Structures are given as C-alpha cells and as structure tokens.
Amino acid sequence: MPFLNTPLTKQDPTVSMGTAMMTPQGPLTRKLSAFVALSGSDLETLARFHKRRRSFLAGHEMIHEGQKNQSAFILAKGWAFSYKMLPDGDRQIVDFQIAGDFLGLRSVLFRTTDHSVEAITRIEASEVLATDILDGFAHSPRLATAILWAASRDEAMVVEHLVNLGRRSAEERMAHFLLELGARQQLVGIGDRTGFDCPLTQYHLADALGLSAVHVNRVLRNLREQGLVTFQKGRVAFDDIDGLVELAGFDTEYLDQDGPLMR
Fold first, then answer.
1. pLDDT tens, 123-173?
2. Sign of CA dihedral 38, 40, 45, 47
C-alpha cells in the first residue's frame, strides 16, 4: 500500500478535564493494532492513558525544549509538529503528528526534553505521565511491545527524512513526504488513496523539507502540472499515485503497517 493555508497564531489553551475511554476504533488503537493484536486487557490498559483529556488551540506550544519532568500526550484529533530551534532563529521541523501519534514520548524518559511540539490546528490530546506509561508497561507487556514498535516506526521515518534532506531532489522529497503522510493517514482511518485533508502551510513544508517557501510553491506547481498531485485549499489530491510513487521511489516497507506480526 503505497500508498496552503492559514498561518499559526499564538494562543492560550482551553482545557477540559475528564475521562475519555479508548474505543477499539480509536486512532491509537488502530495504529498499534498494525503490529499487535490487542486483547481486551490491553485495551483497558490503553484506555487508562486517556483519563486526562485536554483541548488546545492552534499555535499552543505543547512541549518546550529544555523542560524537565515534561508530560507526553496522545493526539486524538488535529495536527501538531515537532521541531528544533537554532541559535540564529531558524527552525527545523522534525516531523508532523496526526491522530494516533504520541507527542513527546521521549520527554517522559529523558531528564530534559530535547525538542518542542506545537499545535497546528485545534487539537484534542490526552496527557500521559511517566507513571502512566511505566504502570501500563508493567500490566500489559504486549501493549509495551506495541508502543515500542510505534517508537521504532517513528525512528524509521526520521531516517527517511534524513535521506530526503540529503539525497533526494526537491520534487522527490516533496512526493515522498506527501505519500508518507497519506499512508499514515490511511492507517488511522482518516485519508485514502485519493488523498487527505492537510492544514500545512508552505512555510511548514519549507521548514520540514529544507526548502524555501518560494521553492515549495514552485515544486508543488511542477507536480501539479505533471498531473501527479494537487495541494490546494487544504486538500492533497493524488492525481496519479502510481506516477508519484515512481518519482519518489516510495516503498512503505519502512512504515511496517501491513498487519499484525503478533497475534
């Protein structure tokens, strides 16, 4: 299965506390189930990760680099991005997070947070403490294995992003990036082979792909004129997905989402 919009504004979060039980069709469950067939007991443990459900407005910084004793979050709705700021003020976006992803999982294990995370859209997320994670792992080794798989998959995506920045042309890296986002969306039941809704601006794409915003605009126009993909009005439409896959040399093996290996 191989598969611009509005700028951010800084705002304070609105918080709604409460419990939110995970259903079998929830995005994190769907994602983890690509590796492990979760049991009823596993699902009950996973549901306890969602006892602190919160809402945040677009532009809110969820996690700040350099913080200590930082919580992690599980993203239920919306988009976020993780990034590093350089001393000269330049920003490198490391990855984008969608429903079913952890935000700052390393933050609950490292002494000091090594990156920042910001909401792109209004989001709903469950705050997860280190004790939640460790207690869950103790009670459900299969769930622990599934989360380790998810973290390993994230690392595999970072490797592909490094290849993007170092060796692929601008058109190839854009094609690869959009196909990867599409495959990730399909896994959690959001997008399909025709495309997906996408709130990213050209500035987000530029900071993720090592391009200027002007170059991003030119690359997207070239891909559209070749009849491969159209990114307009917050929607990525795969006009010729097979052609896009060929251009990018895209292979979903590194995403490892073809079905559970542990049953």
1. 999 999 988 998 999 999 999 999 999 999 999 999 999 999 999 999 999
2. positive
Question: Are 184 and 246 members of one domain?
Answer: yes
**Are 106 and 117 contacting, i.e. CB atoms less than 8 angstroms apart?**
no
Is 37:74 a contact under the CB 8 Å cutoff?
no
Q: Is the pTM of this model over 0.85?
A: yes
pLDDT of 49 reads 92
DSSP state letters, 134-194: HHHHHH-HHHHHHHHHHHHHHHHHHHHHHHHHHHS-HHHHHHHHHHHHHHHHHHTTS-BTT
* Domain limits for position 113: 27-153
Tell me if 11 is assigned to some domain: no
CB-CB contact of 185 with 149 (8 Å): no
CB 45 within 8 A of CB 78: no
| 41 and 92 assigned to the same domain | yes
Residue 229 pLDDT greater than 80, yes or no: yes
97, 122, 153 — which closes off a domain?
153
Contact criterion met (CB below 8 Å) for 26 and 82: no
* CATH number, domain with residue 78: 2.60.120.10
Domain presence at residue 2: no
pLDDT digits (tens, 9 = 90+) for 43-99: 999 999 999 999 999 999 999 998 888 889 999 999 999 999 999 999 999 999 999
Predicted confidence (pLDDT) at residue 227 exceeds the cutoff of 50: yes
* Phi, psi of 41, rounded to the nearest 5 degrees: -65, -40
Pairwise CA distance, residues 147 & 129, whole Å:
15
